[in-house]
Design a protein that fits this description.
Layout: H1 6-26, E1 34-40, H2 43-48, H3 53-63, E2 69-74, E3 86-91, E4 96-101, H4 107-119, H5 133-147, H6 151-165, H7 169-172, H8 175-185, H9 192-202, H10 209-215, H11 222-231, H12 236-251
Parallel strand pairs: 1-2
Antiparallel strand pairs: 1-3, 3-4
Helix pairs in contact: 3-4, 3-5, 5-6, 6-8, 8-9, 9-10, 10-11, 11-12
Length: 253
Amino acid sequence: MAVLHPLSLWMVSLTLWLLVSGCEALSTNTPTTITTIQVCQDKHCCQRFTGRSSDLVQTLRQLAPLSGCTIESTTCLSHCDKGPNVKIRMMTASQVYETVEHDVANAPAAAAMLELLFENNQEEERGNYQIHPTLLAAASVMERAHKATTIQEKERFLNSVMKALEKEDELAKSKSMAQALVMRARLQGDSAKMDATRASQLDPWHPTVWRVLADASPDDPTYALNQWIQYQPHYRTKAKKELQLWQESQEAL
């Protein structure tokens, strides 16, 4: 007897839930299904992702729909031996559906999860949701860049990603491009400030873009630090302390 893959079993449950709770709501023009995807940041999950578990957050941000879907970090989701673990929460006006997906260990697994998640959502803007193959390839190559051991190798991978994304206007303005730019800016090369600035324009909500831009702007990091406070308010104390230290250093000149 054939055994269904866990993703298939999950999709049976999700499909039934959507049919029961959301048929009328999902037929409207206004998105009524709000999806939150939480990525476990426990050390066991971090060790099992091909990059780092925090990079899984970025991978999902690059591949997920632009609206109606929030990607965020969370604490341990249990099932540590099955990680990396991802909690999915879908909410309509009348019901909430939650599940935990296991073994989301690389970009292809993340893409498969997202496509299964949204393919039965009948909202017009998400019907037949498919991830652009270049975005998936870019996410996979960026995982390799994370694992590379030399700056030259990392740059080679990231340059190849950006070259591929630049071929289409939509991809050149994507969160995937922003992530590649942030990663290259972290290498502190000659283009670090330019890369970080462009990334901040493409994806100002990127969790580290303003931190990276501040590091790339030693002459005057005030703009980047203030933007960091605005977009990542949980770092307000740290950013304000850095602003104060920089201002004191200028006064001492």
